[in-house]
Amino acid sequence: MHGGNLRKAQELYGLDSFIDLSANINPFGPPQGVWKSLQEGMVDIVNYPDPESRVLRTTLSNHLGIPIDSIMVGNGAGDLIFTIVQALKPKKVAIPIPTFSEYERAARSVGAEVNYIPLGPEGWDKFSGNRNSSSDENSFDQLWREYLNGCDLLFLCSPHNPTGSLLDKDMFERILRLTKELGCRILFDESFLDFLPDELRQSTRTYLKTNEHLLVLYSLTKFYSLPGLRLGTVFAHPSLLARFDQYRDPWSVNVLAQHAGITSLEDSKFPEVVREKLGESRSVFYREFTQCGFLHLRLWPSTVNFALIEVLNHTSRELIQHLGEQGILVRDCANFTGLPGDFIRVAIKDVLAMQRLIEGLKAYYLKEEQ
Questions:
Q1: Can you give the pLDDT at residue 133?
Q2: Of the candidates 317, 316, 346, which has an alpha carbon nearest to the alpha carbon of residue 331?
Q3: What is the pLDDT of residues 176-223, one digit of tens each?
């Protein structure tokens, strides 16, 4: 269902190690200070973790400029998604597709009806056309009223997974206004926000004060490379968080995750270093992919740490099998609802990893031509 399952890959391909491009995690590891903080935190594993994660929430508050009583942390973004849905118990939800499968799984777990909003491989770029005239705006509003008809919760994700596309400010503000008018809450997932360059990195957290129906999900797992510890947070009105608190495990964030999160956020130089390294890798990969001129592959570029590749001449499973045998794991997109055709998603890792992927693709298509 998800990428990053190394145990299964070892069983499937008979290899001990892989270049894992199936999970879109920062490949350069956590901030250096995290290792020391984990060692120091080991003495605390004999005690229960702070159920309020007070120090971590204070650090988040100082780092992001959000009141501490508007912050709840959890065992990764996935844990919080299920907690929120269990607390709200929506009757009908709207989900743009393709997207992260846990939105729908959480909704189905409470018996909610699901209304799909089709995006396709373009992602949010599908709606980036003409919205300059009043008639265009009216058409947009009418379309979204239909999407949201009867819904009490809307899932949004930007940067969008799996397309990497961005929901622009004007479009979001129109959706925000419509949902407030219709009495529909928004759960806005910003798990990949930190991967964006400075000029594109705008959080919807700034709208929280005036929009109590807005909830913003934020992940430390992906950018700070902590997938094995799990750490996510949701920002919302304190009254909503009090409601969620009744449905969460009070010890969902273990002591080591709390230590790692605090140390990660305190490293002010880390984000820029990661973005610079990933920017270099992304440029190398896109350039070499283009130079290869693959006739049967289409790259859908993005501004974050992953990209879609459309497989045009055969099933993606054949290509995935070939790459796996070469020790390269990519994400099979077959289980992304609303993504017609055959696609793989590749994470952007270090330059050598991306060059290995290019060589793996070249080897496969050279074999096809012979």
A1: 53
A2: 346
A3: 999 999 999 999 999 999 999 999 999 999 999 999 999 999 999 999
Nearby residues of 3 by Cβ (< 8 Å), 6 or more positions away: 20, 22, 23, 24, 329, 331, 345, 347
Helix (H) or strand (E) holding 53: none
The string of pLDDT tens digits covering residues 8-60 is 878 878 888 889 999 999 999 999 999 999 999 999 999 999 999 999 999 99
pLDDT, tens only, 282-313: 999 999 999 999 989 999 989 899 999 999 97
**Distance (Å, whole) CA 222 – CA 29:** 10
Query: Of 90, 27, 21, 126, nearest to 347 (Cα)?
Result: 21
- Is 141 in contact with 175 (CB distance < 8 Å)? no
Query: Which pair of structure tokens corresponds to residue 148?
Result: 């949201």
Helices and strands, number each (H, E), in the chain: 12, 12
What is 219-284 written as a DSSP string?
ESTTTTT-TTT--EEEE--HHHHHHHHTTS-TT-S-HHHHHHHHHHHH-SSHHHHHHHHHHHHHHH
Query: Tokens 């491009």 correspond to what residue?
Result: 21
